[in-house]
Amino acid sequence: MAIDKVLVAIFGVLGIFFTYWFFLMKKDKIVEAQDSIDIIVEGGYSPQVISVPKGKITKLNFIRKDPSDCLEEVIMPDFKVRRHLPLNQKITVEIKPGQSGEFGFACGMNMFHGKIFVR
Amino acid sequence: MSEKKLTFGIKGMTCASCVRVLEKTLSRIEGVSSATVNFATEQATVVYDPEKVDPKNFESEVANVGYKALVEGGAEDVDEQKKEKQKELNSLRNKVVVSLILGGLILWGSFPGLMDTAPAILQNFWVQLILATPVQFWAGLGFYKATIPALRHRTANMDTLVAIGTTVAYGYSAFVTVFPEIVKSIGMDPFPYFDVATIIIGLILLGRYFEAKAKAGTSEAIKKLIGLQAKTARVLRGGKEVDIPIDQVIIGDIVRVRPGEKIPVDGVIVEGESSIDESMVTGESLPVDKNKGDTVVGATINRTGTFNFRATKVGQETMLAQIIRLVQEAQGSKAPIQRIADLVSSYFVPIVIMLAIVTFVIWYDFGPAPALLFSLLNTVAVLIIACPCAMGLATPTAIMVGTGKGAENGILIKDAESLETAHKLNSVIFDKTGTLTKGKPEITDIMVVNPGVIAIPTLRRGKQSQKDRRADARDDVLRLAASIEKGSEHSLAEAIVKAAEEQKIEVLPVTQFKAIAGHGVEGVVDGKQIFLGNRKLMERENVTINSYISQIEKLESEGKTVMMLAASPYHPERSEGSQLAGLIAVADTVKETAREGVEALQKLGIEVAMITGDNQRTANAIAKKVGIKRVFAEVLPDQKEAEVRKIQQEGKVVAMVGDGINDAPALAAADIGIAMGTGTDVAIEAADITLINKDLRSVAQAINLSKKTMRTIKLNLFWAFGYNVSLIPVAMGILYPFFGILLNPIFASIAMATSSISVVFNSLLLKRFKI
């Protein structure tokens, strides 16, 4: 096998490992929300993993800076929330979780995800 | 970002000093640059930065200092959203037009077979580079804008795939154009593929344009509901009619409505009568006649008469506001069937990128010459054809259309899970009173069996004929029954009290009143211990009814509920054996839609049962009238839940249909609780499905809607998964060794664009489903 083919094969395998590591093995930093927290919506959610207290109202302020259609809605199925996020506006979603656990939220097309840990 | 100005009503101000408190509170909110409050108009005007503060925060801040801000978002939000969406769509359309024109020109100048007909200038690679560059970096800017921050978060979506795919095609073509000698030196023809990059961008944007337009249709129902809200109300204040914004109407206001006008809020008619079109809220197509004392619902339309009504529910408390909230919540919920799509989509894009790398390596190492070109084009095809959007849209779009369709027809579905469970139902239990029947029973027979026991000496009647004496005894039965039932809230009690009022029979004072659940009532009237109730009560009090059993059974077999009145002289220390004094038969009319509703369910292969506290004979008679074969009679209110569970243990998926208030535990125990509701909080909370139209045929319609929605979801998921599972391998070139077939990246982009549109369109087809 020619050297270029060997190199392509090696880089290909490395590329696959890198893709796996880059997208699927990331560790999310949990950000603790007190009464309210700003979540920047740009290529995902920042912060992506939020910890909120149980039984208390927490205000999640979504500010969408990304014009992508995908992110124009945020859906929090466990809290029965579907909100339109106008560009560059702060939209507050109030949640009062009744039970502890891990609850997901996502964009309207279910491409970008975030997590809420209720403690 | 420019600042915005918002004016909204404030309730609860009592003096001018409130103004200062409110201004201070509002000004302190981060993002608010100025706030002025007008005491006279009870309004606040706030200038704020929308990027820093959501106007909804004003409500909670104002509430913290003891006032109420009426920041009505509803209709305005929808208008603004619509404008914003239109702006986005216009910009998208421009990008589509420019990229398809430029892409078309490049394609003409470069596509084998076509290029010979093209002017020489279009065949020039440098010209193609110039034409392709704005498409790649202006029209396609959105893909990069989404990709870069996503990569920063170590996430990826469809934009990432398109950005990588088109950049590879554009980058290779640009390299070939700028450095043709280098390409030649490795034995390749220096031929660019700008057409691939530009046409892909044009077609994907075109797909997005149609998708966005179609997606707007999925949330149409909620927009329609919000649009139903009236904007102003004509209230009587200080003897004058004044038109005020709807958010300033307060409970107790007298509102005047003229023919053709929209009723602004919920209330009770105090003067006048009219025929009202409630179809927009309840789905009921025929206008309803309303008189003094009847309730009217906000957002419905007054057709003929003029009337005044007292506002009883305003703002977020109105039925329309509750319906909107419920539909919004349902559309934000997730159906269990979506779990699999969720799982796949969380790994999808990284897996596609890995497959694209595999494709490149395989084609480069084992493919035919020119290997680099084949590997590049096939890698681009894999990246472009993958469509995670279709999977993401498959379930939610159908849920949105399904729940919206339900709401338009007076069927409110609490969440996606209920919608999903409803299609599995194979047993429906109806509560009798108020559900199958109108819940407004009327007295049909009064029989005196022992006048001596109940004669009321305090009423002096003088000398009477036998006929008069019989009539008096009958009146006494009704008088005692009405007296004792006066304090009861049971629907049978209402019938007795109403009959007494109509016959102008005065009731007597009652002491020691006691209601015995599932039995009846007892109390002391005119020195007599009175018991009024069913057989169970008579058995409990050892009252013999044997001599009258045939009369009782005859009435019961006619579907009437027989209440027995027993009495004995009252002694505080000891109880004396009571004797049966009279019988009162009460009949409730079966709803017009009951039989049809039951038949519709039976046609769907669903077993229909009836549950009631009535005795077996009465229950059987009613069940026969409506065509129900399985009857649970003499069930105490607290036992209904247990009966529901018993049927569930038979392996059935059970729906319980009740009024949502008395049946709350049974509704909660059932797999699906259906409330024939009035839109009250209690009913909506307890039920999975609320039928605000009170039409029994809607039970089958709701189940049909669920079946249809689930079929749409399954078809969407099958299409979305099937599309990706079958076409990604084709794009990788799996057919090439056998048939020599390869997928041109341009066709890949056509397939991708149509795939998500077809999912949305399939969901929109639900709109055409006739309920």
What can you see in these coordinates?
Chain A: InterPro entries: Cupredoxin (IPR008972), EfeO_Cupredoxin (IPR028096). Chain A: The chain crosses the membrane at residues 6-24. Chain A: Keywords: Membrane, Transmembrane, Transmembrane helix. Chain A: This is EfeO-type cupredoxin-like domain-containing protein. Chain A: Residues 16-118 form the EfeO-type cupredoxin-like domain. By secondary structure, chain A is of the alpha/beta class. Chain A has a single domain (31-118), classed as Sandwich (Immunoglobulin-like). Helix content of chain A is 18%, strand content 41%. In chain A, the strands form 2 sheets. Chain A has a 6-stranded mixed β-sheet with strand order 1-4-10-9-6-7, with no helix packed on it. Chain A has a 4-stranded mixed β-sheet with strand order 3-2-5-8, with no helix packed on it. In chain A, a hairpin with a 3-residue loop joins strand 2 (36-41) and strand 3 (45-46). Chain A is elongated and about 65 Å long. Chain B is of the alpha+beta class and 771 residues long. Chain B has 5 domains: 4-73, Alpha-Beta Plaits (2-Layer Sandwich), CATH 3.30.70.100; 77-249, no CATH class; 319-408 and 699-770, no CATH class; 409-437 and 591-698, 3-Layer(aba) Sandwich (Rossmann fold), CATH 3.40.50.1000; 439-589, Calcium-transporting ATPase, cytoplasmic domain N. Helix content of chain B is 52%, strand content 18%. A 7-stranded mixed β-sheet of chain B has the order 14-26-25-24-15-22-23, with helices on both faces. In chain B, strands 6-5-7-13-8-11 form a 6-stranded antiparallel β-sheet, with no helix packed on it. In chain B, strands 16-21-20-19-18-17 form a 6-stranded antiparallel β-sheet. Chain B is elongated, with a radius of gyration of 36 Å. The mean pLDDT of chain B is 86. At the A-B interface, helix 1, strand 3, strand 5, strand 7 and strand 8 of A face helix 2, helix 3, helix 6, helix 9 and helix 12 of B.
Radius of gyration of chain B: 36 Å
CATH architecture of chain A: Sandwich
* Helix/strand/pairing category of chain A: alpha/beta
- Give the C-level CATH assignment of chain A: Mainly Beta
Structural domains of chain B: how many:
5
Low-confidence parts of chain A, pLDDT < 50 over ≥5 residues? none
Average residue pLDDT of chain A: 89
- Biggest sheet overview of chain A: 6 strands, mixed
Specify the number of helices of chain A: 1
Contiguous helical run count of chain B = 30
Strand content of chain A: 35-45%
CATH superfamily of chain A: Cupredoxins -  blue copper proteins
Q: Give me the Rg of chain A, rounded.
A: 18 Å
Helical proportion of chain A, percent range: 10-25%
Low-confidence segments of chain B:
none
Shape descriptor of chain A reads: elongated
Helical content band of chain B: 40-55%
Secondary-structure content class of chain B: alpha+beta
- What does the main sheet of chain B amount to? 7 strands, mixed
Major sheet strand order of chain A: 1-4-10-9-6-7
Membrane topology (chain B): Multi-pass membrane protein
Catalytic activity (chain B): Cu(+)(in) + ATP + H2O = Cu(+)(out) + ADP + phosphate + H(+)
Family (chain B): Belongs to the cation transport ATPase (P-type) (TC 3.A.3) family. Type IB subfamily.
GO biological process, one term (chain B): copper ion homeostasis
